[in-house]
Amino acid sequence: MRQGFAGYTGQSMSLLLFKIVVTPLLIGGATLLQRRYGGAVGGLFTGLPVTSAPLSVFLALQNGPVFAAKAAVGTLLGLIAMAGFCATYARAARGTQWLPAMASATVASAVLFTVLARVPQHPGLAATMVFPVLLGLVLLVGGQAPGAPVPHPWWDLPARMVFALMAVIGITAAAAHLGPTWSGMLATLPVLSAIMGGFTHRQAGPEPTRVLLRGIILGSLGAAAFNLVVAMELPHLSVASAYCAALLAALGVAGFGHIVLGSRMRPRGIN
User: What is the C-alpha separation between 227 and 123, in angstroms, rounded?
Assistant: First the structure.
């Protein structure tokens, strides 16, 4: 009994340490890419499953592959609400300040989350909904335009890393009470989109904000591919094999989407 408890405690501590180390590094890397290559590429990498992927791994290790596979369906559907936030903000930013735009986008996202939670949790159904919606929202937000580099205060990068870490730890801690559907959906809460979009809007105006948020929606195509593979293959493959396949799918779909719908990466210099 003591050995079992010690093993469980050791596993929990190892997972917690993994969260503390890996999650901030992922967010920090995505932020530096944004500063290096601009809003389009920064948004693209932010839309990738930089937080939902480690969260899914944590759920698989803590609650089992079946739980994580079901949560991946919730994440897949939740991407619609996250992309809805980005599209609503991008459209509202053209004619208003950042706070009203943020409020409109938050309301739209909350309504979508509530509706999507009632959708049958089936990978095939989720995929037929998510990919067309994401593509449609990319087109709705509009084409990209070059913008000037945005200055960043010293606390910007640490704040993003801490915020992402708190979100991952909080969601994984509550997973046992939330169940797989909401555990997956909460992984797509537009926390980073709100922080990055609001800051960009306030400092640089609506056009750079639109470019950033469009990039996030575009990157979400990769996140959708990742979660679709996890939902379909995790119950049948080893954890390592399933997540490697999901990661390859995410990078492939996001890269293809960026080539077809995005713009070339132009280094801008790190601020």
Answer: 9
Rounded Cα distance, 257 and 178, in Å = 33
Rounded to an integer, what distance in angstroms lies between the CA atom of residue 223 and that of residue 130? 11
Measure the CA–CA gap between 246 and 248, rounded to whole angstroms.
Answer: 5
Tokens matching residue 57: 């791994």
* Secondary structure of 67-135 as H, E, C letters: HHHHHHHHHHHHHHHHHHHHHHHHHHCCCCCHHHHHHHHHHHHHHHHHHHCCCCCCHHHHHHHHHHHHH
85 token code pair: 């936030």
pTM check: above 0.70: yes
Render pLDDT for 183-229 as a digit per residue (tens, 0 to 9).
Answer: 778 778 787 788 778 877 887 788 888 888 888 898 899 999 999 99
Residues 104-123: b if buried by 16+ CB within 10 A, e if exposed:
bbeebbeebbeebeeeebeb
The two structure tokens encoding residue 151 = 């200055």
Which runs of E-coded beta strand occur in the chain? none
Q: What share of the chain is helix, strand, coil (3-state, %, to 5)?
A: 80, 0, 20
CA distances 252 to 64, 172, 221, 256, 259, Å, are 27, 28, 10, 6, 11
Residue among 29, 114, 73 nearest 224 (CA): 73
* Tokens 């010690």, residue located: 6
Tell me, what amino acid is at 50?
V
